[in-house]
Amino acid sequence: MIAAVNASYRGRRWICLPARGAVLVNTDLHGNGEDFRQMRARFEAARARDPETHWVILGDIVHAPSDSARLRKPELYGYPDESYAIAAGIRALQRDHPGRVHFVLGNHDYAHIGGPRTRKFYSDEAAALEICLAPEQVEELRALFRDALLAVLTPCGAFMSHGSPNESLDELAALDELSLPPVEGDARGRAILEGLLTAYGQRAEVTARVLERISRGLPRQRFLVHGHDRDEDGWFSYHPGQICVVCFGAPRRARRYLRLDLETTYESSAALREDVEILRVYDDA
Ligand SMILES: [Mn+2]
Fold it and tell me: How far, in Å, is the centroid of ligand 1 from the Cα of 47?
């Protein structure tokens, strides 16, 4: 059964995109409003050309670097925290482009709705952000995260999630049964979320087994597109079963997103080409 693509997923935690048009994918904005507006402009231009264009945002939209990190590495971290503006911007886009803008939860986002508190730049980044916001802004942020997806499947072979799923994920129905956060004693739910939200990578054979199992009755998922990691080159692929594109933690000129044709099949991430599918966020960089 393929979940309908709708602005509201009605409690579903995963969808499969239709075999029409194209999808843009980026990840880990971490409060960078300039990167968000650039990607939004790319999505809007692409959708004006082809209404069947989708945009998948692979989590960790919140939590910009601290002042000391900005000073230490301005080429990577020298930007103001626009976490709330990005969340509000995504919700506005979901209203303006129904069923076309898909938000997938990251571990930093999860920290705002009961997940483990992240402490990359502050001892409790969710608290540090929420204290700067009005109560209705906190509620808007949490509403986006509560309704988030955990995974997006595509007919072209790319499975998308924030982190790298482990073998606890053996059927997609398990995602729809999950509470966020999992109920007390739901060890399987916790293990699934740990992979999806916080694992940096799995061995090639593990990813291959997970994708094979979750593909049953669906278009075959051939490789994982994920975020949650950094590389100053703007993207990396450790094996053909996986690729990570990077905004946060890469210099401006190196930042990448993917554009995948939903009407074709990519055998693996090795089929993705620089400047065709693996694209620079900024052309002028
Ligand atoms: Mn992350």
Answer: 28
- For ligand 1, the distance from its centroid to the CA atom of residue 163, given in whole angstroms, is 7
CA–CA dist 44, 97 (Å, integer)? 9
Structure tokens at 44: 């809007």
Burial class (CB in 10 A: 0-12, 13-18, 19+), 128: middle
Q: Report how far ligand 1's centroid is from the alpha carbon of 28 (Å).
A: 7
Residue 48, classified by CB atoms within 10 Å of its CB into exposed (0-12), middle (13-18) or buried (19+), is exposed
Interval between CA 233 and ligand 1 midpoint (Å): 18
pTM, full prediction: 0.95
Domains contained in the chain, CATH given:
14-280 (3.60.21.10)
Tell me the pLDDT tens digit for each residue of 159-203. 999 999 999 999 999 999 999 999 999 999 999 999 999 999 999
